[in-house]
Amino acid sequence: MSNFTASQLVKIMQEAGMDKEADFEGCTNEEIAAIEEQLHIKLPRAYCDFLSVFGKTTGRLFNDVIFFYPDILEFGYLIPDSFGTVERSKSHYVFLFRDSLCLYFDTTAGSDPPVYRFIKEEDTSPDKVFDSFTEWLNDYIVKDSEGYKLYSDRESI
């Protein structure tokens, strides 16, 4: 699968009929800088690109998770309890939180770091689920767009 940029992924979603351009709102450079300042981290370029397109709202995507600015500023307070006995480094940045599931990356692992998953109920070591944030984002959005288009096409028959 090709790795598309966040802007290209918006077009894929629109072509599938999922959302209009107005359904997406990104973070400003100042808001991204505020996240870094408040959390004392340097965010990877791939995640900053994502935030600049999808940081505040993504239309129908991710509507059941804590994922958006400014809610992501609270992760630093939520996550220590969620990780239970699993050790978490200060360089680990949780970008998605849903019930007992956390997706995160290590902010020191380059401009497009691997994505790890931790499920609290399992209380086991986190596992690497994607080789990069971009790969995770593409997998999620492309599959969701394809599923939406397939469902919409069937509904129109």
List the SSEs and their pairings.
Blueprint: H1 6-15, E1 24-25, H2 29-39, H3 45-54, E2 57-58, H4 75-82, E3 92-98, E4 101-106, E5 115-119, E6 127-130, H5 133-155
Antiparallel strand pairs: 1-2, 3-4, 4-5, 5-6
Helix pairs in contact: 1-5
Please, could you describe this protein's structure?
This protein has 157 residues and is an alpha+beta fold. It has a single domain (6-155), classed as SMI1/KNR4-like (3-Layer(aba) Sandwich), CATH 3.40.1580.10. 39% of the residues lie in helices and 17% in strands. It has five helices and six strands. The strands form two sheets. A four-stranded antiparallel β-sheet has the order 3-4-5-6. Strands 1-2 form a two-stranded antiparallel sheet. A hairpin with an 8-residue loop joins strand 4 (101-106) and strand 5. The model has no long low-confidence stretch (mean pLDDT 81).
Q: Element order, helices and strands?
A: HEHHEHEEEEH
Q: What is the overall silhouette?
A: globular
Percent range of helical residues? 25-40%
CATH superfamily: SMI1/KNR4-like
The beta-strand count equals 6
Taking strands numbered 1, 2, ... along the chain, how are they ordered across the largest sheet?
Answer: 3-4-5-6
Task: Please identify, by name, the CATH architecture.
Answer: 3-Layer(aba) Sandwich
Helical stretch count? 5
Q: Unreliable stretches, pLDDT < 50, 5 or more residues?
A: none
CATH first level: Alpha Beta
Descriptive keywords:
39% helix, SMI1/KNR4-like, globular, four-stranded antiparallel sheet, 5 helices, single chain, 157 residues, alpha+beta, two-stranded antiparallel sheet
